[in-house]
Design brief:
With 307 residues, this protein is an alpha/beta fold. The protein has two domains: 4-90 and 272-296, 3-Layer(aba) Sandwich (Rossmann fold); 94-264, 3-Layer(aba) Sandwich (Rossmann fold). Helix content is 34%, strand content 16%. It is built from eleven helices and eleven strands. The strands form two sheets. The protein has a six-stranded parallel beta sheet with strand order 7-6-8-9-10-11. A five-stranded parallel beta sheet has the order 2-1-3-4-5, with helices on one face. Strand 9, helix 10 (225-234) and strand 10 (237-242) form a beta-alpha-beta unit. Helix 1 crosses helix 11 and helix 4 packs across helix 6. The longest helix is centred in the first third of the chain and has 17 residues, at 94-110. The chain starts with a strand and ends in an 18-residue tail after the last helix. The model has no long low-confidence stretch (mean pLDDT 96).
Length: 307
């Protein structure tokens, strides 16, 4: 039986080579190559920001593995065959990074870091009132593998935490309005789907407690950005920590760059750790090669659900 053939595609050559080396180590029984337009037919492919030509030149692929957690770009691409099984990375080192990012932002607000920085700039020596964790309820919207790690981190830090997910909303266990009204800090970790695109409108941001804070480490298009700016300008929101945006890179003339209540990062809250991710992919490829139904493999993307 010929060895499995695996292709790797990534826009950054060094990262592509790192993926290739890690997959060779994790799956030594397979032939692993960087994708080229004239590559021989392969069984599986792994990639990020994949050229459309990959799918056109590899019609015999049995599955495609996204080298990250988000698959909205793949699902919206007309070049991806609708019958091709897609699988995504689950955590692989990203959860702890997300938890670090979110807890750093919350602890900065909780300890009044920005307030003291402003006082320093003005030469003011003034103690500010002590804040209580009980008053800083954390709401995590999205309870997948990454969201669960973030929830546990805030529990460990002693903050009151609540979670909200598609299944909880669908079951009626919680309503979005009730969840938002109890969230002093709203953390977005949900995938971008037809149901979540533009979900956080002006009306829904107004459900947050006055002076609430928002962290978005999911997808920028979850939020109506004009409504977010208006909420920040009015003081309904005290601050926003944003890692993702509706348009990336963020345009140079976007108001977020200069807004005093916004702190932003360039989609850098968490990176896929290639070693653990390659091990995860190798385990799933072995399951598929042994005849496992793709729908029973962890990370299989349900197109009707959007993740």
């Amino acid at each position: 039986m010929p060895p499995l053939r695996l292709l790797v595609a990534h826009p950054d050559r060094d990262t592509e080579q790192a993926w290739q080396a890690a997959l060779c180590t994790a799956l030594p029984e397979a032939s692993v190559e960087a994708w080229q337009p004239d590559s021989a037919p392969a069984d599986y492919a792994v990639g990020w920001a994949v050229p459309a030509a990959l799918f056109a030149t590899q019609p015999a692929l049995k599955a495609f593995f996204c080298a990250g957690a988000g698959v909205d770009d793949l699902l919206s691409s007309p070049e991806v065959p609708p019958q091709l099984p897609l699988l995504r990375i689950e955590d692989a080192g990203m959860g702890e990074q997300m938890a670090d990012y979110c807890s750093a932002a919350v602890l900065g607000w909780f300890t009044r870091g920005a307030d003291y920085a402003r006082q320093q700039a003005q030469g003011q020596w003034r103690e500010l009132p002590l804040q209580q964790r009980a008053d800083w309820s954390i709401g995590v919207f999205g309870l997948g593998a990454l969201g669960q790690v973030v929830v546990r981190r805030f529990e460990q830090l002693g903050f009151p935490v609540q979670g909200c997910s598609r299944s909880l909303l669908a079951s009626g266990v919680v309503t979005l309005e009730a969840f938002l009204r109890r969230s002093r800090v709203l953390i977005l970790l949900a995938p971008l789907t037809a149901q979540t695109r533009g979900l956080f409108t002006a009306q829904r941001l107004a459900w947050l407690p006055p002076g609430a804070c928002l962290i978005n480490v999911a997808r920028g298009a979850l939020i109506d950005e004009a409504a977010l700016l208006a909420a920040l300008d009015s003081g309904q929101l005290a601050a926003a920590q944003l890692d993702v945006f509706a348009t990336e890179p963020l345009p140079a003339d976007h108001p977020f760059w200069r807004h005093p209540r916004v702190h932003l990062t360039p989609h850098a809250a968490a990176y896929t750790v290639i070693g653990p991710a390659a091990t995860q992919i190798a385990q799933r490829i072995r399951q598929l090669a042994q005849g496992r139904d793709v729908q029973s493999v962890t990370g299989w993307v349900r197109r009707d659900r959007g993740y």
